[in-house]
Specification:
Blueprint: E1 2-10, H1 15-34, E2 36-42, E3 50-57, H2 60-72, H3 74-79, H4 81-84, E4 87-95
């Protein structure tokens, strides 16, 4: 199992707007292609204006195929401009859990 951890620093004050549009439109498009959403978070203490979402994939090839399908989806292409200008910095990590790491039963 591999976990993709996507971290976005948003423009000051735009977390409510970002979360609203993702909840109303974006998350269903993502879930239809990416599959297992582990969690979707926003910062409350510490680094401000930060969004983190985590997706689980069976392999890096699985991730690549799913991301390509998402990027090719016309609904996703129409959705992206609604969040693109809210994001100042984006970071992406691929993490693999240690053998002793707890895992959700869904994975």
């Amino acid at each position: 199992m591999f976990y993709e951890i996507r971290t976005y620093r948003l423009k000051n004050g735009t977390i409510p707007q970002y979360l609203k549009v993702v909840e109303e439109e974006g998350i269903e498009i993502q879930k239809s292609h990416l599959g297992t959403l582990v969690g979707y978070f926003f910062s409350e203490i510490g680094t401000i204006n930060e969004i983190v979402h985590i997706w689980a994939f069976t392999s890096l090839d699985d991730r690549e195929a799913r991301r390509q399908r998402l990027l090719a989806d016309p609904l996703w292409q129409a959705f992206l401009p609604k969040i693109r200008d809210l994001i100042e910095v984006a970071e992406n990590k691929i993490m693999k859990p240690a053998n002793f790491s707890p895992r959700s039963e869904a994975h």
